Amino acid sequence: MTDYLIKAIDKTKNIRLLTVNAHDLVQEAQTRHDTWSASSAVLGRTLIAGILLAGAELTDKEEFTVRLLGDGPVGHTVVTAKSDLTVKGYVKNPHIALPPKKDGHIDVKKAVGQGWLEVTKDLELKEPYTSQVPIVSGEIAEDIAYYLTKSEQIPSAVGLSVFVNPNNSIGAAAGFMLQALPGASDSLIDQTIERINQLPALSSSFLNGMTPEELAKLILGEDCKLLSKDDVAYQCDCSKEKYAQILATLDKKQLEEMITKDHGAELTCNFCGNKYHYSEAELKAILAQR
Ligand SMILES: [Zn+2]
User: Fold this and answer.
1) Is residue 288 classed as helix, strand or coil in its secondary structure?
2) What is the CA(238)–ligand 1 centre distance, in A?
3) Ligand 1 centroid to 273 CA: how many Å?
4) How far is the CA of 71 from the centre of ligand 1 (A)?
């Protein structure tokens, strides 16, 4: 496994940073959903953002769902990340590839379009809490930073990068999230932003083997302290029982039609592509239990 998340803090303990190599998990999403370049970049960046948000803010059994509701060709993108640093997601239209921008990069902004970024925090034992901000950039990193600054009142900087190979496999996927703690002075923040502006392109750095530890040192300085290192992974938690519960919420009439007309039902999980089949007898049992 090359995928992991690092948490680090600068020597004054006022700037917190998370860096992640997410190559394998974005590759798994690409394989499961057969995404083409623009869809891979949008889904990949949103998956990395989900992992960083989860790593920064969640504790036991909590989760974040990030919905990128743009009007671009990729369509809505949904990602759920959990406190155990597993993530899953999908894009409405996986088969989108666009002409590259002048600098050769994937035109993520065009793929996403305009609309809203919605983040739902599902905290155990509490009502889920949703905040919504307009999509201000469409490049996703800036949008997540805007959400954190606006909704969470945490001055933040975010970098997200996905490099897609010509054969659609994922070459590199990485990101960082920086948060200024209340004690951070303006000069410290300026100095850190300056280091971020001087960073080499994330995708080529990670293609050339850069590690999350090395990225943390480039941003926070050689004297930063590494606090933790954790594996991250693509993982769906769906099951036949979970989808049976969803079937149970359907109209009685819809369920009866599945029994009498279709003699069964097959559901496909949006997040992982697994298929679940329900026989006529199983549907009758679901109907009887309602
Ligand atoms: Zn699933």
Assistant:
1) helix
2) 4
3) 6
4) 25
Q: Residue 14 and residue 225: Cα distance in Å, rounded?
A: 12
The Å distance, Cα 36 to ligand 1 centre, comes to 20
Kindly give the distance from the C-alpha atom of residue 180 to the centroid of ligand 1, in angstroms, as a whole number. 36
Site of tokens 């519960």: 245
Q: How far is CA 215 from CA 1, 176, 203, 221, in A?
A: 18, 8, 12, 10
Domain 4-234 and domain 240-289, same fold? Reply is no
Domain residue limits, the chain: 4-234, 240-289
Ligand 1 centroid, distance to 89 Cα (angstroms):
9
What is the Å distance from ligand 1's center to 99 Cα? 32
In angstroms, what is the span from residue 18 Cα to ligand 1's centroid? Answer: 27
**243 Cα–ligand 1 center, Å:** 10
Per-residue tens of pLDDT for the chain, all 290 residues: 589 999 999 999 999 999 999 999 999 999 999 999 999 999 999 999 999 999 998 888 889 999 999 999 999 999 999 999 999 999 999 999 999 999 889 999 999 999 999 999 988 777 888 999 999 999 999 999 999 999 888 889 999 999 999 999 999 999 999 999 999 999 999 999 999 999 999 999 999 999 999 999 999 999 999 999 999 999 999 999 999 999 999 999 999 999 999 999 999 999 998 999 999 999 999 998 87
| Beta carbons of 64 and 121 less than 8 angstroms apart | yes
What distance in Å separates the CA atoms of residue 73 and residue 136, rounded to the nearest whole number?
17
Distance between Cα 185 and ligand 1 center (Å): 45
- Class of 4-234 per CATH? alpha beta
CB-CB contact of 5 with 85 (8 Å) = yes
- CATH number, domain 240-289: 3.90.1280.10
